[in-house]
Amino acid sequence: MTWQKHNVRKFHALSTAILSSMTLLPAVNAVSAPKTYQLQTSVIRLIAAPEEHYDKNIVVDGIFIGYSENNLFFDEQHAEYLLRPMSINVLDDSVDEENALSVSACNGEWVELWGTFVKAVDPDISYFKGRLVADKAVLHKNGETCWQRTKP
What we know:
disordered N terminus; alpha+beta
């Protein structure tokens, strides 16, 4: 076999391997791709039209009140008087209270919450038609992350 035929066969084998790996690449990237957030919205929009946001990864601003509340309020006045109809409920999956969003540095602060908005379990008997399952919280006053989900 001449060196030209040998090189053509090597090239063919190499190009086939490259093409095969390129077809697998999107599948690998899909598994390891970071979560993306489709929409920046407001507490008012979530209250007014929750169905438009169900199962979407969103970013929303508000005053977070933790402990027994775990609500994100539209503004300081509504938070001060705990006016729940002007808030959305926030859930986190912390295993222990020590790492919970409710007792973090976010409590009582103006924050930007990142998470997935889901339909409430029984929206007919609650103020809340949906809930934000939080992934991350960032303080507006300094841009620092005050809480982050530890599990994917």
